[in-house]
Amino acid sequence: MAYKITHRTTGRELRFPNRAAAESYIERHGGGLGNWDITTAPGRDPAWGLPAAMLPGGAPKRRANRRTHG
Q: Spans of biased composition, class Basic residues (predicted)?
């Protein structure tokens, strides 16, 4: 089941594929559970909306800028 967290002060919303991922994000990056509301999110469990560090395999690797001069 997908979960959504909403910051109590700023209103920022993030979606997670499960409650454990949402709570892990809050503890690591969000200042603690007291600053957020956790609710179930409608729809399928998304991979989008996750912070890059929470994605399988970690953050995507940046590509080198490969400009060609014609």
A: 60-70
* Residues 6 or more apart whose Cβ sits within 8 Å of residue 63: none
Q: Under a CB-based contact definition with an 8 Å cutoff, are residues 29 and 51 in contact?
A: yes
Quote the mean pLDDT of the chain.
76
Nearest 5°: the CA angle 16, 17, 19 is 75
Q: Looking at per-residue confidence, does 69 or 22 come out higher?
A: 22
pTM of the entire predicted model: 0.59
pLDDT digits (tens, 9 = 90+) for 9-31: 999 999 998 999 999 999 998 78
Which two three-digit tokens encode residue 68?
């060609």
> Reading across the β-sheet that carries 3-7, which strands appear in turn?
13-16, 3-7, 36-40
CB count in 10 Å sphere of residue 3: 19
